[in-house]
Amino acid sequence: MSKPKKTVIEYRNYELPLEFPVLLLTGDRWHISDVKSDKLHFHNCLEIGICHTDSGFMEFADTKQSFQAGDVTFVSRNVPHTTYSAKGTASLWSYLFVSPGDLLRNMFEPSYPNARIFRDMCDDFRFIMSREEYPEIHFMVCQIIREMTEKKMNYQFAVKGLFLSLFMEFMRIYSKEDSDSQAHAPENALVISPALDYIQERYMENFPMEDLANRCHLSETHFRRVFHEIMNTSPLDYLNTTRILQACTLLRTSEDSILEISEKVGFRSVSSFNRHFATIMGTQPTSWRHRMLLSDKTSILQYSGWMQAQNLAEPEEE
Question: What is the pTM of this model?
């Protein structure tokens, strides 16, 4: 008897603008095809979507939910999912990718009322809200998209205020949800979340992989196996990738030398840093920095499922 096919889950990283961690994808190019992906995925940030036309399905690790025009979707950064349109259609969407903690810095400190609800909601929650049942949420999401599109005077202040109100509504919904109905992925989906959080917080330090396994309450051998099943890479390679992505931020925003940056992100030698950077980014850090200075555009990673998103402009070649 053949073994059941394992669900493949991939991790997608979005580089949000440093000074204002909100990314808007909107316009006629953002159609989702009716071809279902053979992979679930989860992001490094919160995804809020609004469906403008047609209908379809959003699948999670354990359930499938339908959506229709006017629905707003909320998918936390650690929730595996995939979206596809109904047969013969290509639903049009707008998406907001946001880092709530960075955008609303100091607004939900641990000592603040309901700070735990805010953190848990941003880490592990999924919900589809119809325009009829949640008109205020639909309105606020549309207002954020309008502000982000028109970029009128002080629009960033307006967007922050709207997001604060929006998250308060989301928190009320989250707090009312019965624990049995909340999203809980199977063991091999979210069990490594503590390790991912630990890496994000302490990537610049040197620590044994055993520390990550202990945080997930797994043996080191079992942890490595589960981590690779989910991320399609080893814990060490993921750590090095995180370090390189952080190095990219420093290359864009500081005048630190390559040696200084390599040390700040946790590499013990500049040669090791250069080698890993070239493997992950396809070029040396000096060349990458020079290219970003000439054309510092936010890059959107391309994935199957979009009808036309693959046509996004890349930075022009030198």
Answer: 0.63
Query: How far does CA 193 lie from the centroid of its chain?
Result: 13
- Proportion of the chain in helix, strand, coil states, percent, rounded to 5: 45, 15, 40
Instruction: Evaluate whether 211 touches 198 at the Cβ level (below 8 Å).
Output: yes
The pLDDT, as a whole number, for residue 37 is: 86
Say what the pLDDT of residue 310 is.
33
Under CATH, to which class is 8-184 assigned?
mainly beta
Enumerate residue ranges in the chain where pLDDT < 50: 1, 4, 178-187, 295-318
311: exposed, middle or buried (C-beta count within 10 Å: 0-12, 13-18, 19+)?
exposed
Burial of residue 186 (number of CB atoms within 10 Å: 0-12, 13-18, 19+): exposed
Strands 39-43 and 8-12: parallel
Q: Which CATH architecture has domain 187-294?
A: Orthogonal Bundle (1.10)
